[in-house]
Write a structure and sequence with these properties.
heterodimer, A: alpha+beta, Glutamine Phosphoribosylpyrophosphate, subunit 1, domain 1, Alpha-Beta Plaits, 2 domains, seven-stranded antiparallel sheet, 7 helices, B: mainly beta, 2 helices, 10% helix
């Protein structure tokens, strides 16, 4: 099953309530995915620095801070077992540092505006733990997982980072992920889990790094990804939605003058302001929809 | 009687409607604040009238028998699935599998219905004032599907004896679905459906009829794949 949600604000006045709007959406979608939850929040873009969202798991924050300070100059902000690390070091170099010295830490996302938090547990517990209610930003996407293709772990949780300021959430399952993983590994894409969505994320980031744009990439995925899916891909400027051509996996979009929201089921959006007067529709199968991109 | 889903549990509301209080003789109900809940008005089996004010979730009015249920909003997957009789009227759009496996009764959708509308229907009448998505009427066995707008890909795939009437364009026909002649009896039947659904802007004569070529009924030994 799994539940996916997203909200893109057209009206800046709602920015301070982005977290609380998304949090209720995720809690509601706990019925579709009780195993883990996660979300990506897009904030105002950093001018010079990059933000790295890290899951430090059971590490002690002080110890982690000491270790980081030995290697780089960075500003750290802890939120439960996740740390947002802000530094001027560029992604390529930073990824190498993390890979070499911090194998016990998981990089869950990076970019100038994105922050990703995800963890196992009931979605209502996960949003409480990360204090999602207090977050502000321009847009956000989230996921509640009912694990099918791989184990209930942090690295099996969504969203998946697909590159700088990019991420993916997925409702469905892919049947050709093992074949595709093998091909992508040959192209130098790394995978941390046995999860099918991670392969879709790797596929998308690989295409994007080869200078394909997001719309083209999603169109290509209709051909290359075999299985059931509704995808939401987040980018610095907005998000895009794609359902496979059979369209077994649901999605509903509600659009008002103030926001565009998407969820697996309407009930996840029932609390949004003025939603009963929104334009409500289902994305058509095999059609890429995007906002802000 | 007004039933507020913000104050009452869904189970209480359905229980009240499934087990009418004979003493009060109440048969008119309004449900407010449905907030996309699933299975609202599922399993009603007495004559009554229920109006739902707002959008609902999955399987609304499922298994309906005798009741008249009006939804003033959109409906999720499987509205009126397995309906036996009665009437369900959706004033907004319907998600996929509207009227799935419905044996009888009338389902009217004022807006569009998405994919697999009328899948495996077994005798119900479904009237959609807008368009329907792909694979509508898939494996439908009996009854009528009337669409005033367009139909998506693979209309009527592997259907049995359902009559499908389409006013607009059909993107493609599914396996064993063919266009059929509109006889006088079909026109008269369609006229009645249009009247029942208060559709005045379409003439029965302007619809095209689709049905089964009946080539999948029996295994053909000379099939040569």
């Amino acid at each position: 099953m799994c539940g996916i949600v997203g909200i893109y604000l057209k009206n800046e006045k709602l920015e301070n309530s982005l977290g609380s709007l998304l949090s209720k959406m995720l809690i509601n979608m706990g019925s579709r995915g009780p195993d883990s939850a996660g979300f990506a929040i897009y904030k105002k873009e950093e001018k010079e620095k990059f933000k790295y969202s890290l899951c430090i798991n059971k590490l002690n924050f002080k110890d982690f801070e000491e270790r980081i300070n030995k290697h780089i100059e960075a500003e750290l902000k802890i939120n439960s077992d996740h740390v947002i690390l802000k530094t001027s070091i560029k992604p390529d170099a930073m990824l190498a540092i993390l890979k070499k010295n911090f194998q016990d830490v998981a990089l869950v996302g990076f970019g100038k505006s994105i922050e990703i938090f995800k963890q196992v547990g009931d979605p209502s517990e996960v949003v409480k733990k990360f204090k999602l209610d207090g977050y502000s930003g321009s847009h956000a996407i989230g996921h509640t997982r009912m694990a099918t293709e791989s184990a209930i772990t942090t690295d099996g949780s969504h969203p998946y980072s697909t590159g700088e300021d990019e991420c993916l959430v997925h409702n469905g399952s892919l049947s050709n992920h093992n074949n595709l993983r093998r091909k992508l590994k040959k192209n130098g894409v790394n995978f941390d889990s046995e999860n099918d969505t991670e392969v879709a994320a790797g596929y998308i980031s690989n295409k994007l790094s080869n200078k394909k744009n997001l719309k083209e990439t999603l169109k290509d995925s209709l051909k290359d990804l075999d299985g059931f899916y509704t995808f939401i891909t987040g980018t610095k400027d907005g998000f895009a939605v794609l359902r496979d051509e059979i369209a077994c996996k649901p999605a509903v979009i509600a659009e008002t003058d103030d926001y565009v929201a998407i969820a697996s089921e309407f009930q996840a959006m029932a609390h949004l302001p003025e939603v009963n007067n929104a334009k409500i529709f289902e994305p058509e199968p095999g059609v890429v929809y995007s906002w802000g991109n | 009687m007004e039933l507020d889903l913000k104050k009452l549990e869904l189970r209480n509301v359905n229980d009240k409607l499934q087990n009418l209080d004979r003493k009060t003789n109440e048969r008119d109900f309004t449900i407010v604040n449905p907030e996309g809940n699933h299975a609202i008005c599922a399993g009603l089996d007495k004559e009554m009238s229920v109006t739902i004010k707002g959008h609902v979730g999955y399987y609304c009015a499922g298994m309906n028998k005798k009741a008249t249920i009006t939804i003033e909003g959109n409906v999720g997957t499987g509205v009126a699935e397995n309906m036996m009789s009665g009437k369900v009227h959706v004033k907004g759009n319907a998600s996929q599998s509207a009227g799935a496996t419905a044996h009888g009764g009338l389902l009217i959708i004022d807006g569009d219905a998405s994919s697999r509308c009328g899948i495996s229907m077994k005798g119900a009448d479904i009237i959609v004032k807008g368009s329907v998505g792909h694979m509508s009427g898939f494996m439908s066995q009996s009854g009528n599907l009337v669409v005033c707008g367009d139909a998506g890909e693979a209309l009527g795939d592997s259907l049995y004896e359902t009559n499908i009437y389409i006013k607009g364009n059909v993107k493609s026909l599914g396996a064993d679905c063919v266009e059929k002649k509109m006889d006088k009896k079909h026109i008269n039947k369609l006229k009645k459906f249009l009247k029942d659904a208060e559709i005045k802007n379409h003439k029965a004569e302007s619809f095209k009829r689709y049905g089964s070529a009946r080539k999948l009924y029996n295994f053909k030994i000379d099939n040569n794949y």
